[in-house]
Amino acid sequence: MALKAVFFDVGETLVDETRLWAAVAAQQGITVLTLFGVLGGLIERRQHHRKAHDLLAPDRPLADLPDIEASDFYPDAVSCLRECKAAGWVVGLAGNQPSSAEKALQRLDLGVDVVAASETWGVEKPSPEFFARMADAAGCAPAEMAYVGDRVDNDVVPARAAGMVAVFVVRGPWGWLQKDWPQAAAASLTVPDLVGLSDKLQRLPG
Questions:
Q1: Is 3:89 a contact under the CB 8 Å cutoff?
Q2: Domain boundaries, the chain
Q3: Which residues have CB under 8 Å from 112's CB, separation 6+?
Q4: Residue 25: Cβ within 10 Å count
Q5: Confidence at residue 44, expressed as pLDDT on a 0 to 100 scale
Q6: What are the DSSP calls for the chain, one per residue?
Q7: pLDDT at 63
Q8: How far, in Å, CA of 65 to CA of 67, rounded?
């Protein structure tokens, strides 16, 4: 079945979150090295990243990530979105993000059709309901969609289970640590970055 829509995760798929996490570390009184090291350990333990707050700063209020800015996007991200739009697909951004991130992305006017955050929808990945909501937002069947993400557990496996084309981008801490998981084989396509992604999707067998 031909693709009609391509949706993207946000953090570490389109957006380099280094600045955002460094700001959280500063707010929590934690060194960046410590926070990043603990995040890596939590990924290996298959635990939620919010556990880092419980371990490192349980007595402090949970810090919010700063707003995403245009400078936070990976160099290949915006051009990839434009190429996917030029291919004639519905293009969306949907990830486990606060509603404030959704509003920040909308303000950036990226030329996409859908911008959605898990907090707004009231459901998070890897829940099947999240992927059903994406299909509804795209106005097509799951089999007519691709979902692009950097995580095997939250992106690849549930997207494939929903019947979507699952694209695994191997970058960011989750991508590098999860690339050798057996479940990574569930990806329909594995790429090191977003360069030429629209062409690669068009070459996938139907």
A1: yes
A2: 5-16+68-202, 18-56
A3: 81, 85, 91, 92, 93
A4: 19
A5: 86
A6: ----EEEE--BTTTB--HHHHHHHHHHHT--HHHHHHHHHHHHHTT--TTHHHHHH-TTSPPPPPPPP-GGGB-TTHHHHHHHHHHTT-EEEEEES--HHHHHHHHHT----SEEEEHHHHT--TT-HHHHHHHHHHHTS-GGGEEEEES-IIIIIHHHHHTT-EEEEE--HHHHHHHTTSGGGGG-SEEESSSTTHHHHHHTS--
A7: 67
A8: 7
ω into residue 61 within 30 of 0, thus cis? no
Considering the segment(s) 5-16+68-202 as one domain, its CATH architecture is 3-Layer(aba) Sandwich (3.40)
Query: What integer is the mean pLDDT of 81-90?
Result: 97
For the stretch 136-152, pLDDT in tens is 999 999 999 999 999 99
Q: What pLDDT is recorded for position 28? A: 86
